[in-house]
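yo

u said u wanted the structure for the complex thing, so here. seqs first:
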Amino acid sequence: MPEGPQMVFLKEQLSHFVGETVVEAKGREKGIPYDLVEGQALVDMKTFGKELLFCFPDFTIRIHLVLFGKYAIDSTLNRALQLGLVFENGEVNFYACKCRFIKEPLDKMYDWTIDVIDKSFNPQKALEKMVLKPRQLICEALLDQNILAGVGNKIKNEVLFRRQIHPESLVGEIPVEKLQTLIEECVKLSFEYLDWKREGTDNDHWEVYKKKECPRDRVPLLKEKIGKSARSCYFCDKCQKLYIPDNF
Ligand SMILES: [Zn+2]
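structre next:
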């Protein structure tokens, strides 16, 4: 699933469509009024967490690539088109994704201060929300899009490794200052990830995600599906400390 930085990178790849008019809107997404979209000028593009937003004067089209979503710029893929937007200077096509037509003002729908890559991101608010669920596993708290919008499985695994915290640690057992540095690391890594996307080197930088060996200890990494969401965790049980109660 694409994470926040990947969506910002996609937005940058589509920036030449801003200011252009939709010549044709097509696809099988039922909630989109295709006739209404055609003839409209794209005034802006934004992202919120893992969502991409096409902003028109009176409405927004939201794209969420979910688990297996794909897109093609100025080309097509051999699969069922979910939504395609054709402009005079090119086109973008989305597949296996969720699309939504939004009439409400975006500032009413979104709290931009929870998006880790947004300039208004508020780390204190993230911390306050996180500690409200002290029994939650840290690997699940990091993926909560209502706390840290945009953080996905790659960022989750990497920040836990960098800050040396075991994914099965309970939020309430981790010292608050460690939670703070973990949240700071989510922001830092998101911007690094965006830079790597721009350079085309993002796959060269992961230390634990889909890796076999701990770069600190040179011992095998563990790979386990942890928590209710059962997302894969890659971690080292030698250098990542498990924070749980003594009587656990
Ligand atoms: Zn290690």
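The domain at 4-109 is CATH 3.20.190.10 (N-terminal domain of MutM-like DNA repair proteins). The chain has seven helices and ten strands.
cya
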